[in-house]
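Reminder to self: keep the SMILES exactly as supplied, no canonicalising. Ligand is zinc ion.
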Amino acid sequence: MAATPSIPGRYDCNMSPPAPRLRVLEHVPDSLFHTPARDLERVLGGPTLLRIAGEQTILPLFVSTLLHGNETSGWTALCRLLGRGDLPRRPLLVFLGNVAAAAAGVRHLPGEPDFNRIWKNADPPYAAFAASVLNHVVSEPLAAAIDLHNNTGRNPHYSVLTDLSDANRSLAYLFSDKAVYVEEPDSVLTRATQQHCPSIAVELGPINDPHSDDLAEDLLRRVTAAPSLTPSHDGLTLYTSLARVHINPDVAFSFAGTGPPAPLVLTGGMEAVNFHAVPRHTEFAYTQRPFQETIQVLDPGHRNVTDQFFYQEGPHVRFARDVVPAMYTTDPDVVRQDCLCYLMAPLSPRKATPTGHPPPVQ
Ligand SMILES: [Zn+2]
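Structure tokens returned for the bound complex:
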């Protein structure tokens, strides 16, 4: 779910692009899978559903990618899987999301919403577009839904769950032994598709990292080749997202050991402990100002919970509780446009509330 780098102007920033209209391709030419993500809009004309045939006795897999236009590993993996003309054993319903943003190499275009925030309570043109996609998804039984994303920072690959059903956890464990349960935002595609079938989003790793492409290809090959999806998640480690850390917009910052001194200096090496337990009292930052003026921690309900997570000892800003950081980034643009990091806690499987659908056994 990487945030947007600076956006080259395909549209004037004051002009909204037209609302998207869904295309459906029942017969997909092999040549499409030799098309770079950047050229999909020119070839397809807009967001498109592709139907890829497989064995009729196996339930299809819904695969979505390019909801964020610059996150291309999912499309690269689909091209590797389908570019030689071989049909997968498992049929696929593929949704190619924001291909216009992909043409510009950005997350989304100026003036339009994030395509992974339109699946509930979107503005009318986008609500209609989202409904047209979901109508196709719910019109047939599906084995599962997998939404493919890249992200930023040094993180292990992991799944994101919006529901802790056994089926979702089993699907997540096919990808990684780590998964994060999130309650917000509630307008992501995974939350919409999980009403119909087991659903996960997967965070493959950085954009333009070949390893991210390999992970996506490996997952798709295994899920499409298997006649059944193993209903096991015994080794899955679950985390829940507690809050995210923002740096206040008017505060200049630097990372320790890099760049000139700044009013807020962030402790070095934190990116390396993404998905690792960090004990209470560990130093997080250094500032001569009251720390509440420099950073802000927001919980899933967007409440300011800064004092619950940090305290200050002289200039040293320290964690007030044990946490597991995730998505900590040292990219200043991402810090400004999204956030510095998320703070998580391990989630006991016993606390997980099993709900939803049966395991993904077909
Ligand atoms: Zn994303």
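Points to follow up:
The radius of gyration is 21 Å.
Confidence is low (pLDDT under 50) at residues 1-13, 353-362.
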